[in-house]
Design a protein that fits this description.
Length: 252
């Protein structure tokens, strides 16, 4: 329930299953129905399952057995599977070799979103992302992940936003000519920018009160000491994919 609620909050369309048998039935039914509608020239009213997030220990068919059957069926073999398990990735058993992703329990929300975004991929590229970061070395690391604009100061960020809203903003709170709070306050006063999707990538913990001051559109808060630049890249790609695709991903 917790995982489903977190994913719904971030725009995913969740289909819940309580057993391996139910996973197989849903995946096969959705795939067949979508293929039939597309074959007749109709727009798919019920989209197929885009990814499966699955525990290994379930009643009836285990996660291992369910994974094997999914990959053995032509209709479901292409659906990426992310394992959600108490077993750490370093101890990943050989039976899980066909899984495309792995998230350890208790799950970290940002890592779960990043792993789902990685296995789903982004159609059409990452879009226009504006990175506002004064640390040039860190900016270069993040910029290596995908093409994006970079602003090292508050004024540069304002000037760039005035040229047109980016698809998403990655924001450091510490800037040489101000801070992230001032930039968000300015963005909120601009009709075209007040709902801009935002990732706050801070070097310190942010309080609930500060989070309220920083929210624009869909907003994520990441701590530099806990989340690596590669994970930032994967999370941003996942966010941009959902923002650019009006049809929510179907995750079972």
């Amino acid at each position: 329930m917790v995982v489903a609620e977190e994913l719904r909050r971030h725009g995913y369309d969740i289909v819940e299953a309580s057993s391996g048998e139910e996973v197989l039935a849903i995946a096969k039914e959705r795939t067949a129905q979508s293929a039939l509608e597309v074959g007749t020239g109709e727009h798919a009213r019920v989209p197929p399952i885009s990814a499966i997030l699955m525990d290994l220990y379930m009643p009836g068919l285990s996660g291992w057995e369910t994974l094997q059957q999914l990959k053995a069926l032509p209709a479901t073999a292409g659906i990426p599977v992310v394992i959600l398990s108490v077993i750490p990735q370093t101890d990943r058993p050989e039976q899980a070799g066909d899984a495309q992703g792995w998230v350890q329990k208790p799950f970290n929300e940002n890592l779960l979103l990043a792993e789902l975004g990685r296995v789903l991929g982004v159609k059409g590229g990452p879009g226009q992302v504006l990175l506002v970061e004064q640390d040039m070395e860190l900016a270069r690391v993040i910029l290596d992940g995908f093409k994006e604009d970079h602003a090292a100061t508050l004024q540069q960020a304002v000037d760039r936003c005035l040229l047109g809203p980016p698809d998403l903003l990655i924001l450091d709170l510490t800037l040489p000519d101000g801070d992230g709070f001032s930039l968000v306050d300015w963005l909120r006063r601009q009709p075209a920018l007040r709902t801009l999707p935002l990732v706050v990538y801070s070097g310190r913990e942010i309080s609930e009160a500060e989070m309220m001051k920083l929210r624009l559109g869909p907003t994520q808060f990441l701590n530099k000491s806990k989340v690596q630049p590669r994970e930032v890249e994967e999370l941003v790609l996942a966010m941009v994919k959902r923002l650019r695709n009006p049809v929510a991903e179907q995750v079972a």
